[in-house]
Amino acid sequence: MELHKLRPAEGSVKNKAKRKGRGQGTGKGGTATRGHKGAKSRSGYSKKVGFEGGQMPLQRRVPKFGFTNRNRVEYKGINLDTLQEYVDAGRISDEVTLDVLVENRLANRKDLVKIMGRGELKTALKISVHKFTKTAKDAIEKAGGEATTL
């Protein structure tokens, strides 16, 4: 064993990458592997998200339509024929509240519920939800039920 032949164990030392931009003697001076001119050669360069090299970006190419009302109130619609099916199956009795609808997975706890007028109701139900259509309210009252708005 001689001092000038000592080597670290295999894999214990990682070869560091050549230091760029530290003078001509390193072989990586001058442009420091960045090429000549252009934004990418400058310090502080960062590409914007979605930049396509000057080509018209996707979000500007795709057409936009209409208007989105930020104040729109969304209601979960439940039709009379659905309620009648649940009554026939024995899952709903004489009173329908938001708790009953959540229990039967017709609505979620945070939903605003609106009863719609499709189908017909043969059973007298006492329904209390957020909104009713005119036809639904008439059909419920015609069947001997009661429509209460929350």
Distance between the termini: 93 Å
The portion of residues forming beta strands comes to 5-15%
Structural class: alpha/beta
Strand order of the largest sheet: 1-3-5
How many strands, which pairing sense, and closed or not: the largest β-sheet? Answer: 3 strands, parallel
Model description:
The chain has 150 residues and is an alpha/beta fold. 19% of the residues lie in helices and 13% in strands. The chain contains four helices and six strands. The strands form two sheets. Strands 1-3-5 form a three-stranded parallel β-sheet. The termini are far apart.
Attribute tags:
single chain, 150 residues, alpha/beta, three-stranded parallel β-sheet, 6 strands, 13% strand, elongated
Nutshell version of this structure?
The protein has 4 helices and 6 strands, in the order H-E-H-E-H-E-E-E-H-E. The chain has helices at 58-61, 80-88, 98-103, 134-142; strands at 76-79, 95-96, 113-116, 126-129, 131-132, 146-149.
